[in-house]
Design brief:
With 390 residues, the chain is an alpha/beta fold. The protein has 3 domains: 3-147, NAD(P)-binding Rossmann-like Domain (Rossmann fold), CATH 3.40.50.720; 148-261 and 295-302, no CATH class; 317-390, Rna Polymerase Sigma Factor, Chain: A. It contains 17 helices and 12 strands. The chain has helices at residues 13-23, 40-49, 63-69, 105-113, 123-139, 149-157, 183-186, 191-194, 204-211, 214-226, 265-272, 289-293, 310-316, 321-337, 345-354, 359-363, 370-388, and strands at residues 3-8, 29-36, 54-57, 76-78, 92-97, 115-120, 143-146, 166-173, 234-238, 244-250, 255-259, 298-299. A 7-stranded parallel β-sheet has the order 4-3-2-1-5-6-7, sandwiched between helices. A 5-stranded mixed β-sheet has the order 11-10-8-9-12, covered by helices on one side. Helix 2 runs parallel beside helix 3 (63-69) and helix 5 crosses helix 14 (321-337). The longest helix is centred in the C-terminal third of the chain and has 19 residues, at 370-388. It is globular. The structure holds nicotinamide-adenine-dinucleotide and magnesium ion. Magnesium ion (MG) binds at residues 148-150, 219.
């Protein structure tokens, strides 16, 4: 039987890579739902190419365009108001959660109910809503697999391993496009430069997060949510070649690392084929000794990348601190991409929000529902805007 697949955020970098994997093995997969925000042209093309049963376009101004273009096909078209859960009766085999930002939280929660397995690339969803997501995962007996390359690797390295067996978990960072430029020059970098990642082709938001290493702040928080290891065991190490994705130092003297090419199709395909109870059996490229010989590792200079000091603050200042930092960062990245603020203002402004007199009140809340997360997210967005727009 064909495996039923849904992709939330199918027109983005992760969404497209997921469809590329499926395209090579169409006979085994049935794409039953794709969703997108603005890129209606890509959504229409994907719907036709994969004979998709249902599509949802979030931005309602494009709804009629999608509806008209697909009227001669069997694809049903849904608008933003549709509750994803109402589209399906039974459970799908696999859903890829690949929307960017906390906007993906509600759709991911909805998808857990109708998916046997949910693969989550959308790290903002994990760091802001894990308390709620994990309850739903348990309730609906849905399996969660992380797609972020470092977390996918940590999971591979720590299957059946408990906290006591591990001394340290290293998450590698490429260092982004500004690894070797002096801090003074970072003041004036432009969005086009910040989004030019040396190793990965990704969406704009995560590319900016990678340029100032906020992405690593989020990834440590993401790891502390997903895995039950002591949060003090995580460390960031710069590895410009992005060939090693994570390293685990065990108490028994062994150190293990996972290496693979910078291609998100590797974690995606491995999770997509996990239903076979085995990992994806595709030929791995010959190991290039040149690549191995050129591998380098460096400690992070927090003077140049002060974002990393936010990790401890995020982990020790209340459960909803990650939600506040994430919301603030989403607003600031948008302002930077619109050329309204400078590159270094992103981390500077996030630090300011910790000093706000209302910060503690919101950060210390215990999130019981998505509404609690939403409320704190809204507060942080408005506060951040008020700090930038004078
Ligand atoms: P992207 O910007 O390329 O794509 C985002 C997708 O989300 C698009 O399909 C867009 O239509 C959809 N979307 C955006 N806003 C939406 C909204 N309000 N409602 C519904 N849909 C919306 O982003 P990406 O690079 O594919 O990243 C997606 C997620 O995966 C991010 O959370 C990112 O951190 C994570 N991730 C990405 C990579 C990568 O290599 N790209 C690696 C690791 C983790
Ligand atoms: Mg990553």
């Amino acid at each position: 039987m064909k495996k039923k697949i849904a992709i939330l955020g199918s027109t983005g970098s992760i969404g497209k890579s997921t469809l590329e994997v499926i395209k090579k093995d169409k006979k085994n997969f049935d794409v039953v739902l794709l969703t997108a925000n603005n890129n209606y042209k890509k959504l229409i093309q994907q719907a036709k190419e994969f004979k998709v049963k249902n599509v949802l376009i979030k931005n309602n101004s494009f709804y009629s365009k999608v509806k008209n273009s697909l009227k001669k096909t069997k694809t049903k078209v849904f608008s933003a108001e549709t509750n994803l859960g109402s589209i399906f009766s039974g459970k799908l085999d696999y859903t890829m959660s690949a929307i960017v930002g906390v906007a993906g939280l509600q759709p991911t929660v909805d998808a857990i109910k109708f998916s046997k397995t949910i693969a989550i690339a959308n790290k903002e969803t994990i760091i802001c809503g894990w308390e709620i997501l994990s309850k739903h995962l348990k309730k609906h007996k849905t399996k969660m697999l992380p797609i972020d390359s470092e977390h996918f690797s940590i999971l591979e390295l720590t299957k059946n391993v408990n906290n006591e067996a591990i001394d340290e978990i290293i998450i590698t960072a490429s260092g982004g496009p500004f690894l070797n430029i002096p801090k003074k020059k970072m003041i004036n970098v432009k969005p086009e430069e910040a989004t030019k990642h040396p190793n990965w082709k990704m969406g704009k938001k995560i590319s900016v997060d990678s340029a100032n290493l906020m992405n690593k702040v989020f990834e440590v928080i993401e790891a502390t949510k997903i895995f039950n290891f002591n949060k003090k065991k995580y460390r960031i190490v710069i590895h410009p070649q992005s060939y090693v994705h994570s390293i685990v130092r065990f108490r028994n003297g062994l150190i293990k690392m996972i290496l693979y090419n910078t291609d998100m199709k590797i974690p995606i395909s491995n999770t997509l084929y996990s239903y076979k109870g085995e990992n994806y059996q595709k030929k791995t490229k010959m190991i290039d000794t040149n690549t191995l010989n050129k591998m380098t590792f460096l400690n992070v200079d927090t003077k140049r990348f002060p974002s990393l000091k936010l990790i401890d603050k995020c982990l020790n200042s209340g459960r909803l601190t990650p939600t506040i930092v994430n919301a603030s960062n989403e607003v600031l990245v948008d302002l930077f991409l619109a050329k309204k603020i400078g590159f270094l203002d992103i981390v500077k402004t996030i630090n300011k929000i910790f000093k706000d007199k209302e910060f503690k009140k919101y950060a210390k809340r215990n999130p019981r529902s998505l509404k609690d997360v939403e409320m704190v997210d809204n507060w942080a967005r408005l506060k951040t805007l008020s700090m930038c727009v004078r």
